[in-house]
Amino acid sequence: MINVMQRRSFASAVSAAAAAPFLLGAAPSDTDRTQSAAADGRLKRDMVAALENELQDRNTARAVAAWIFDIGFDWTPAAAPISEFDFLIAYAFGNRPPANGGDPAKVLAEPGPMNELLADVVARIRTKRTMTVYAQWEIAHFLKTKYNMSQVIAIDPVIAEDGTITYLSTDGVAAQVAEQRKSNPGGLGTAGVVGWRDHIKRCVLTTEGRGMTALAPEGFTMPDTYDPESGQPWTRRRDLYLVHDMNAQWGMMRTELISRMYPNG
């Protein structure tokens, strides 16, 4: 078990890591980078020590600590200037229940205020550089009605013949975009990814998993004000959403690790 001193050391490292800034909105100084790297280093060492004490197995502790750090403590995606992007992908976050009621399985949800905030980010990017936007329908709604934006391709939910609506997952959206990009003469290209503050890392990873180069846009801060009336319970509050997202990341990592360690099954 972890002793008291280990817990205090671990807690101190966690606090330091949590205080590190989210760096998409502004470039970090050399001092910021140095302090953040030092805090991360202390945290990783304490995690390995705590797990080794618990598991009595240093090699496993080192491997598992690295995975826990990646999923639990690193929420910042790789980023690049918007000049490097061929197109944008905007991933939705939450929604609102149908305004006039009805069967939610067959009545389209309302886009909701969080997706309007994401549309605002896309609009800010487009004032700097015009490029095609593949936007999940909730965001596309605002891009068209609020901004009258051109070159917007909506990624819609799947509606069956009986009217049943299947909303796309993050991977479902990425798959749709990859399919549409296949005919592009230059290949799939490089995607600039717009997503919720706590979702964007997974959006970038998922986009990459579908064969596209993917990066967050430097200099643009992603929204993070949660909607307590969201129609998706896991997007109503931050602590609950982080558990949801980590669970999804663990599933992705599990698949990757099995494939890497046992490529032949």
TrEMBL record:
UniProt key word Signal: yes
PROSITE patterns in the record: TAT
Keyword annotations from UniProtKB, A to Z: Signal
InterPro entries: TAT_signal
Secretion signal span: 1-26
Name used for this protein in its record: Lipoprotein
Organismal lineage: Bacteria, Bacillati, Actinomycetota, Actinomycetes, Kitasatosporales
